[in-house]
Inverse folding.
């Protein structure tokens, strides 16, 4: 269980205008800006939930995850994770959580992943029998057999991420903070990682908090999303409800030709890509529009979908008012 | 502490595997430690005809070969390692493990000692093939003190480098301080000139500073520059006191650094 009440994380950042004079002045008198990376965020996540944590670059996602993992101290507010105060980084807390950062690795570069796994097993005090059992399970789920003994530097990005996940989960954490775990991976590997995360969550009733720039990850994994921007919470709830509230119209796509004036009557044209056309249609008119299209000669391959989450997010961030400017600070937002 | 002790054998084993994986780089790095050899050739030519102050040619050979051995066995790269981890943010991964980062750094650098021993073995062999062998102490008490002083020098150097590495929490260019440290070390540790050949004021300064105890002290014990075992034991005690002071300083610098890291991120 994760509980966050009015979390604030402010950074004091040294400010220096450009130019030599300013550089000299800053030696004598340093001026600071306060960057509000996280500014009063509250939420509660129950055990076993999978939650997408979304927001544009610099919104405060990574800062929040680092506070939850105990790496950063909150400026204000209360944070409880797995019945612990993360900032104390008590051993009992660290044994229950894991933080996977897609752009930082813990595997030892010149040794095979199996060595990092052995090391983590010892460091987290995993009993031998349990270690063997967990490793066998992870090896099966992530298909690691061929990778375990290869030096890490010879692994592809995707293979490395699978091994990173194994290293991060050998101590069977119950709370997973995943920061861009699929970054840079090809589509097939993204799907593999996604399926694995879901499987781990279901097998161990683990709580998962995930940030990703790939909305497909979020759609596939997270029934609930928390959206922050400029350090503030702008949405917390069901993903489908968010999509429906922001963009209630459905996307209807089909192949085949329809006259332009007919299209105008059916809905709003979103795209016309070669022989394929996509329209945005209000939900209450769906039946009528589909019926019409099915009656047109040469129309086929008809599909009805929700608008892509990327578009929903874009609209959400554009619509929000009076949110503070997001600032990247010291690589920690 | 229990978690650290329980994990230590595995951490040492993986550390050794890592050292073996990096063996080529490490051997090259160790072999670039040539300064004692330069000084050896310089001073042996000075003492060619007659002893220079209390040093014969054999004394100089013994001194600088011993300096080479001690330097290679007690050095480490933990300051660079810590600096890099702070800059790259990979320190986060270390902080999320339930063992103190000191324990894992300690294991990594202790595990490098066997490879260091392999590299210095030829130097030890050469020492015993030359006249230097007559200079090296042979009584068991002083041999024991030498081993203790070697361990003390290792811990003192480790503590110093952890403290310098921890400065990366506060300073962007903290590695420049390694250069400052190394300059002082060269002058005041006996690495370039034996302490008893230094001008009086410099020798006095060396007595009061920690550098001598990182290199000069074990070298002097090995080649019997002290009046007796009791005098050597006094030096070892001072050295261990310095090691304790430096390890506490490192721990304090580390704690302050981690607090800053928790406040500002990195």
């Amino acid at each position: 269980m994760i509980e966050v009440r009015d979390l604030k994380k402010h950074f004091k950042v040294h400010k220096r205008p450009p130019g030599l004079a300013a550089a000299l002045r800053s030696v004598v008198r340093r001026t600071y800006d306060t960057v509000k990376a996280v500014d009063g965020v509250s939420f509660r996540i129950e055990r076993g939930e999978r939650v997408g944590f979304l927001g544009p670059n610099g919104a405060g996602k990574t800062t929040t995850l680092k506070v939850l993992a105990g790496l950063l101290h909150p400026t204000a507010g209360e944070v409880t994770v797995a019945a612990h105060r993360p900032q104390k980084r008590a051993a009992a807390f660290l044994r229950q959580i894991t933080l996977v950062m897609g752009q930082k690795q813990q595997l030892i570069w010149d040794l095979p992943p199996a060595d990092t796994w052995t090391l983590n097993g010892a460091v987290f005090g995993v009993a031998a029998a349990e270690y063997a059992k967990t490793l066998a399970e992870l090896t099966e789920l992530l298909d690691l057999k061929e990778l375990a003994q290869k030096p890490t530097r010879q692994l592809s990005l995707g293979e490395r991420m699978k091994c990173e996940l194994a290293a991060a989960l050998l101590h069977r954490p119950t709370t997973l903070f995943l920061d861009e775990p699929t970054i840079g991976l090809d589509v097939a590997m993204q799907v593999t990682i996604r399926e694995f995360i879901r499987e781990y969550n279901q097998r161990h009733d683990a709580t998962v908090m995930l940030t990703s720039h790939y909305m497909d990850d979020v759609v596939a994994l997270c029934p609930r999303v928390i959206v922050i921007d400029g350090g503030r919470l702008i949405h917390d709830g069901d993903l489908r409800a968010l999509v429906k509230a922001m963009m209630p119209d459905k996307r209807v796509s089909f192949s085949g030709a329809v006259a332009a004036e007919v299209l105008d009557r059916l809905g709003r044209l979103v795209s016309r890509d070669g022989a394929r056309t996509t329209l945005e249609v209000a939900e209450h008119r769906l039946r009528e529009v589909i019926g019409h299209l099915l009656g047109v000669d040469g129309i086929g391959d008809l599909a009805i979908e929700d608008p892509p989450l990327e578009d929903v997010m874009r609209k959400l961030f554009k619509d929000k008012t009076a949110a503070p400017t997001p600032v990247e600070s010291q690589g920690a937002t | 502490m229990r978690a650290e002790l329980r994990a230590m054998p595995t951490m040492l084993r993986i550390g050794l595997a890592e050292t073996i994986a990096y063996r080529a780089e490490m051997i090259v790095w160790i072999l670039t430690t040539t300064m004692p050899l330069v000084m050896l050739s310089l001073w042996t030519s000075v003492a060619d005809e007659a002893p220079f102050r209390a040093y014969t040619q054999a004394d100089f050979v013994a001194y600088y070969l011993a300096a080479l051995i001690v330097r290679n066995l007690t050095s480490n790269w933990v300051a660079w390692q810590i600096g890099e981890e702070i800059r790259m943010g990979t320190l986060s991964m270390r902080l999320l493990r339930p063992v103190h980062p000191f324990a894992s750094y300690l294991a990594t650098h202790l595990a490098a000692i066997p490879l260091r021993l392999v590299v210095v073995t030829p130097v030890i062999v050469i020492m015993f093939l030359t006249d230097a062998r007559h200079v090296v102490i042979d009584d068991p008490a002083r041999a024991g003190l030498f081993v203790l002083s070697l361990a003390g020098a290792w811990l003192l150097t480790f503590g110093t480098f952890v403290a310098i590495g921890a400065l990366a929490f506060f300073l962007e260019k903290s590695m420049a301080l390694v250069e400052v440290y190394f300059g002082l070390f060269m002058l005041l540790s006996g690495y370039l000139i034996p302490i008893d050949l230094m001008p009086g004021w410099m020798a006095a300064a060396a007595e009061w500073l920690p550098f001598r105890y990182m290199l000069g002290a074990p070298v002097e014990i090995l080649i019997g520059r002290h009046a007796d075992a009791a005098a050597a034991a006094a030096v070892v005690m001072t050295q261990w006191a310095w090691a304790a002071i430096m390890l506490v300083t490192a721990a304090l610098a580390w704690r302050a650094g981690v607090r800053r890291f928790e406040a500002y991120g990195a």
